[in-house]
């Protein structure tokens, strides 16, 4: 293992600097960590909630002074415990881990669902100075869960930007899934690159359309993660370990792992379960 990876894997304790409520189920937590503040878009960290669990989270933002933010949805034991924590509470972090999105110099389309929107916001902020055109397609079940709409609208940079919102209940933007308007957008905008992050069945639909239109694609995949350094095997998808070979995968790599992508993953006992 390289010296860089060893340093990243060391558990550091730090304290929460601030907590912001983003939606009824999502909060953003900010803390100081110099290692994770070097992260690039697409990378993740392991977040330790003392006495409860350690969980993987995408990096939402980093600041030069060392501030790092993550957006966390309350779904189970660890995330519920984290939602009860406040500024000043002690946490632990390892990372940053994983590869990064490719920064293309062209027209880009980002499509995200749920908390999958978080890493795309980090990417959009970094790409804004060089992208001539950026389209953001953001989806959620309902308006109150549609994350970071205003942040995407306010991204600076000279290039043209357009935000398309969709909600399953029709309370904001297009009614339905965020992939519903995608084909028309691809035909009209002809982006050079699609970046996608969110539920895997959503990503699978994006993959299908990217294949049909011959568009370059990078997606962020989620699998069960324990070690985050390629040792335990809990994150495997066919020949890849998502924690070290990903979490960002190209369209060509997704073709290689077609038998498992959008189909199955491993559970806590290592058994394959249907998505
Ligand atoms: C690379 C990566 C990035 C992620 N980024 C974010 C993010 O930015 N924001 C966010 O809210 N969530 C993110 N998640 C999902 C987050 O890790 C889970 O929601 C969290 O671990 C749930 O823990 P829990 O104890 O609250 O819930 P549990 O009740 O333990 O689990 C609920 C569900 O969460 C998933 N999960 C649980 N433990 C893990 C684990 N160790 N690794 C992967 N998935 C797990 C499983 O699908 C499980 O069914 C990410 C996951 C991965 C793999
Ligand atoms: S999480 Fe252990 S090998 Fe990827």
Topology, please?
Elements: H1 3-9, E1 12-21, E2 26-32, E3 44-49, E4 53-58, E5 61-62, E6 67-73, H2 77-83, E7 90-97, E8 108-113, H3 117-127, E9 133-140, H4 149-153, E10 160-167, E11 174-175, H5 182-189, E12 193-197, H6 200-213, E13 216-220, E14 236-237, E15 240-241, H7 242-245, E16 248-250, H8 251-256, E17 264-266, E18 272-274
Parallel strand pairs: 8-9, 8-12, 9-10, 10-11, 12-13
Antiparallel strand pairs: 1-2, 1-7, 2-6, 3-4, 3-7, 5-6, 13-16, 14-15, 17-18
Bound molecules: flavin-adenine dinucleotide and FE2/S2 (inorganic) cluster.
FE2/S2 (inorganic) cluster binds at residues 225-228, 230-235, 241, 243.
Bound molecules: flavin-adenine dinucleotide, FE2/S2 (inorganic) cluster
- Class inferred from helices and paired strands: alpha/beta
How large is the share of residues in beta strands?
Answer: 25-35%
Supply the CATH superfamily name of the largest domain: Nucleotide-binding domain of ferredoxin-NADP reductase (FNR) module
Give the total of beta strands: 18
When the domains are counted, the total is: 2
